[in-house]
Every structure is written in structure tokens, then in C-alpha cells.
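User: Please fill in residues for this 168-position structure.
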């Protein structure tokens, strides 16, 4: 059985083909290339969205989505304030819209992470609202969620896992 299909499919933008070509297929479809470390403070690259903050949020803080559809500071102290889903890319006032990073590198010059090996480079949602930590939460009822990987002392690759473990 075949189904009728319109071209181009809705929601897809068809770009015109190049008139000239680069050698050895270099103009073929490739992955998205972005710098590992952004060159400027409080900048990031990757999947970002304009969303509404539910409270005042500072650049570099992580947030969860509340039932009101707004983004609030994530807090690993309990399930009601998790999981962390986005990182604020700028200071955003309560009830205002701003840029949030879903996945990608981000730089914050105020950070001073220690670059290590393997698991030592992971950052976790913290029991301090909006913060990330190189240490996993350990209190009863705390939630453990990996949210980022340390790239340099002042930059991370934000890529939150949706899997969480509750400490008994």
C-alpha cells in the first residue's frame, strides 16, 4: 500500500543545490561542527531554545520544567525539582523569556572546575538549587543525575541524562 506524499514534506526546508562543488565530496551533508570550548564568557553552542523562567535564573544555572510550563532551578534534594533539563545561557528574570541550552558546550569564566580522568570529569545536579557539582549527592532522598562533562576549568559540555537514581 502506498500513501500520497507531498514534496517537500511539511516542516522541511529544501535548500538549493550548489552550482559549484568542493573536491572529494566535501560539500556533501556532514555533521554539525561547533567549537569544543566557546571563545567568550557566558556563551554556548548547540541545541538552544527561548523558554520562560519561573524565577530569577543566572547564566550557567540548571533548571527543570515545572507543571506551569516554566523553568525553575533544579535541586537534587527531591523528585519535585528534578530532572535538570536545560542550562541558562544568560541571566533571566522571573516570568521572562531567555536563552536556554539543551545540549552543547558552554563557557562561564567564573567557574574553576578541575579537569580529571574519566568519571572525575562528570558534573552532577547539586542539592544547591541551580548548581552543578563534581560530587554526587549522598543524602537520603537525594537524586543523582549526570548533567555535564568538564572540558576545561571554565567550560563544560552540557548533556543531561534523563536517568536518575534516588539515594535510599
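Assistant: Residues filled in for all 168 positions:
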Amino acid at each position: 500500500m502506498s500513501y500520497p506524499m507531498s514534496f517537500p514534506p511539511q516542516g522541511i526546508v529544501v535548500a538549493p543545490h550548489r552550482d559549484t562543488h568542493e573536491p572529494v565530496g566535501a560539500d556533501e551533508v556532514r555533521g554539525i561542527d561547533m567549537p569544543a570550548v566557546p571563545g567568550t564568557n557566558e556563551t554556548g553552542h548547540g541545541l538552544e531554545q527561548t523558554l520562560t523562567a519561573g524565577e530569577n535564573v543566572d547564566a550557567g544555572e540548571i533548571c527543570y520544567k515545572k507543571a506551569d510550563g516554566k523553568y525553575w532551578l533544579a535541586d537534587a534534594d527531591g523528585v519535585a525539582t528534578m530532572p535538570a533539563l536545560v542550562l541558562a545561557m544568560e541571566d533571566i528574570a522571573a516570568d521572562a523569556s531567555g536563552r536556554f541550552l539543551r545540549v552543547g558546550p558552554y563557557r562561564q569564566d567564573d567557574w574553576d572546575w578541575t579537569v580529571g580522568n574519566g568519571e572525575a570529569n562528570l558534573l552532577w545536579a547539586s542539592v544547591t538549587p541551580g548548581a552543578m557539582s563534581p560530587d554526587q549527592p549522598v543524602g537520603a532522598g537525594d537524586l543523582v543525575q549526570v548533567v555535564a562533562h568538564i572540558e576545561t576549568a571554565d567550560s563544560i559540555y552540557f548533556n543531561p541524562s534523563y536517568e536518575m537514581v534516588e539515594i535510599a
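For context: Residues 47 and 119 are 24 Å apart (CA to CA).
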